[in-house]
Amino acid sequence: MDPSGSSSEGPGGKPPARPQKPGPWQPRIEPFFANKDHNPRELKSWARRTGFNPNHSGETASVISDRDAADEQTPAQGLDLERGIRRRGDGVPRKPEIEPVVVRGRTNRGVEISPMVPGPGAGPAARSEKEKRKVGVEPPAVGLKDERREAGEETPLRSKSDGPEGNGHGNGAAAISLAKADEDSRKEAGKDEREVEIDFFSDGQDPEDLSGYKPPSGFRAGVTENPGLVPLIFYGIQHYLSLAGSLVFIPLIMVPAMGGTDEETATVISTMLLVSGITTIMHSYFGSRLPLVQGSSFVYLAPALVIINSEEFRNLSENKFKHIMRELQGAILVGSVFQAVLGYSGLMSILLRLINPVVVAPTVAVVGLAFFSYGFPQAGSCVEISIPLILLVLIFTLYLRRISLFGNRIFLIYAVPLSVAIVWAYAFFLTAGGAYNYKGCSSNIPSSNILSDRCRRHAITMKRCRTDVSNAWRAAAWVRVPYPFQWGFPTFHFRTSLIMVIVSLVASVDSVGTYHATSLLVNLSPPTPGVVSRGIGLEGFASILAGLWGTGTGSTTITENIHTIDVTRVASRKALEFGASLLILFSFVGKIGALLASIPLALAASVLCFTWALIVALGLSTLQYTQTASSRNIIIVGFTLFISFSIPAYFQQYEPNSSLILPSYLVPYGAASNGPVHTSSEGFNFALNGLLSLNMVVALLVAFILDNTVPGSRQERGVYIWSDSNRLDTDSSSLEPYSLPAKVRRFFQWAKWVGL
After folding, report:
1. Of 69, 607, 649, 710, which is least surrounded by CB within 10 A?
2. pLDDT tens for each residue of 198-254
3. CB 306 within 8 A of CB 697
4. Is 604 exposed, middle or buried (0-12, 13-18, 19+ CB in 10 A)?
5. Are 731 and 525 in contact (CB under 8 A)?
6. What's the distance, CA 227 to chain centroid?
7. Residue 724: CB partners within 8 Å, gap ≥ 6?
8. Contact between 561 and 243 (Cβ < 8 Å)
9. How far apart are CA 685 and CA 744, in angstroms?
10. How confident is the model at residue 746 (pLDDT cuts 50, 70, 90)?
11. Are 135 and 97 in contact (CB under 8 A)?
12. Compositionally biased, Polar residues: which spans (predicted)?
């Protein structure tokens, strides 16, 4: 385009070269004009002349002008939020800051752009000052040169492109300094005779050698790092020990409610260890590839209790445990197939647009809050061991959290296993010392067969406090390998399957929040929608394995992973894989499951009080990505939390018609058979009454509708920003840790859920 506004083209469709003005002007480089029949060599040649690199360099003004115009119409403040989140870890991988471009030319408005380079006397100090202005981690060095061109070529303005990590997207605009330079001084500097070198980095590697990912400051091992054999063993064990409460305590609640024996409790625990180990390794290679442990989730515990307390199973006396377990297996299999299809079909990528922190926060928080009626009422049955345990956990995690031994904050990392070991030993001495011996009463006699009123009052205390009540250790075999259909072939019913399908959606929303929070914590760019879909699809496949083996719950990402990674400062996938391998080996040793099954119930309930409280805190912490002071968010979250307890309370007031008296903590889960919904379909009645009696389902439904219908800016809502591998301004090296292994990825290039 000439100054008069007319355009003309030279040979090959390129703009004709302008004649160079007389004087010592800098040579000009023409901008690259995209066309359909461009030659790849021409692209590379233009990139060499302009110093353009799609991963580390800015784009020319001609390339970014359309995007800038679009950004003016889109509120950018919502994207500033991602940059604020990035401050959580030191050394966040950002694209390198582009130094002032050394050019002299004339823009379309006639403003001269003069070079800002150190003079002949500038030494290392000047370069040091220049390096101090760089943002984030210092990447490897690249030296890029502007080649001298013939007369008439034009140098485009260089600008730093928007990306997922700044100025609305994470990077901000490049600094272009405007100054006047004296022609004589430029001649003295010899700028008209030598090439100008633009040094973006601090050493001399090529851009292709840029590793991209670096762990945050203070982390001992990043996602892709192998810390060595000895640290690998140590880190793998410590990660699973810190998650002990989430991995093994669900069977201690479920199996007794299902009428199972101590031996069956031990078998279910061993099965959970096996499935958790297998699915964690699978997720590390074929899922989201984030360092996340997979296992039985508390998301599935409440719906499992609804099915367990249905009228059909309430009065069973023979093989009650196996009947209920087969029903749970069938429901989990249907729900997990739905979740796998949701992920691998790409539908999850569409759903991601509607899932934001304002939806995730109350949904996850309610998962923990829903068990308030079980926590301390169960722990309070034996206050002499439950109170000391709760106090120890709080002291270790709060008051002693900064104490470090051998470089490890052992009290913070091992708060749960240390507290359990200390109080369990204390309970053993109480039992051996006769603290729970009552004359004429035996803990081995079922409560229903106790005739003495005095012994009946002490029966609960003996069962929940004594360490020698469980006979799991005596009955369990040393070696036992869990196998599919070990409880029998699953049974399928529409009413229970529908409940698990909806619950799989809740589990997916929980995992979405965990993926995003973990990626920021370990210093990665947020995963792409394809990676999230791939992770959700694999979680569905993992739940299929849980249904086949019979764990009683589905397998999903454990929310407490975020806390574990934060306190251990270890994010190595290799460490998780090693720990998962140990879980698989431990599952074959029946005595390990038996030992865990013999934990006194009051002690387990005390640990769960802390674990559920941690889930509540992790859920609410998701609001940090939003404007928490916004009245919109305050009303949505507050109303969601309240109504998610009030509506289930309405359904739970319909007490079950049964000759048996349910324990108080199971009464809320008996509403499915006797709720207020009455239609011509009994199966639909059961499913709808059961779903509306679940706090987390109501929370997800209410928060989802309100957040997506009430107007609010992207920053106010804290809209999740997912990476896009197709954008030119996306640093592909920051997404490399999400890539499938090369040999696997080669066979799935056609699939959208590959994600990269």
Report:
1. 69
2. 343 333 333 333 345 777 778 889 999 888 889 999 999 989 988 888 888 999 999
3. no
4. buried
5. yes
6. 22
7. 164, 528, 730
8. yes
9. 45
10. confident
11. yes
12. 52-63
Q: With CA atoms as reference, report the closest residue to 139 among 91, 194, 83.
A: 91
- The beta strand positions in 371-522, using DSSP E, are none
Q: Give the C-alpha separation, 752 to 110, whole Å.
A: 48
Distance of alpha carbon 63 from alpha carbon 59, whole angstroms: 6
Least confident among 19-33, 71-85, 706-720: 71-85
Give how far the C-alpha of residue 188 lies from the chain's centroid of Cα atoms, to the nearest Å.
Answer: 58
Please list, residue by residue across 483-511, b when 16 or more beta carbons sit within 10 angstroms of its beta carbon and e when fewer do: eeebbeebeebebbbbbbbbbbbbbbbbb
Tell me the whole-structure pTM to 2 decimals: 0.73
Compute the C-alpha angle 336/338/340, nearest 5°.
70
384, with CB counted inside 10 A (0-12, 13-18, 19+), is middle
Contact 167, 76 (CB under 8 A): yes
Q: Residue 585 has which token pair?
A: 């080996």
- Give 415-436 pLDDT, tens digit per residue: 999 999 999 999 999 999 888 8
- Amino acid type, 370: A
- Per the structure block, which two tokens stand in for 423? 């109080």
Judging by beta carbons within 10 Å of its beta carbon (0-12, 13-18, 19+), is residue 386 exposed, middle or buried?
A: buried
For residues 165 and 525, is the Cβ–Cβ distance under 8 A? yes
Residue by residue, DSSP assigns 500-530 as HHHHHHHHHHHHHHHHHHHHHHTT-PPPPHH
Task: State CA 641 to chain mean position distance.
Answer: 22
The arithmetic mean of pLDDT across residues 474-479, rounded, is 91
Report the pLDDT averaged over residues 167-184. 41
At residue 304, the 3 state secondary structure works out as helix
| CA dist., res. 179 & res. 102, Å (int) | 11
Exposure string over 156-175, b if 16+ CB within 10 A, otherwise e? bbbbbbbbbbbbbbbbbebe
Residue whose pair of structure tokens reads 């941690």 in the numeric block: 614
106: tokens are 């004339």
Strands 143-146 and 158-159: unpaired
User: Rg of the Cα trace of the chain?
Assistant: 31
Phi, psi of 207 (to 5 degrees): -60, -30
The residue assigned the tokens 């431990």 is 586
Dist. CA 405–CA 517, nearest whole Å? 28
Please give the Cα distance from 367 to 510 (Å, whole number).
Answer: 10
Q: Which residues pair with 158 in a beta bridge?
A: 60
CA 386 to chain centre: 32
The whole-angstrom distance between residue 99's C-alpha and the CA centroid of its chain comes to 35
Which helix (DSSP H) or strand (DSSP E) does residue 239 occupy? helix 229-242
Phi, psi of 408 (to 5 degrees): -125, 135
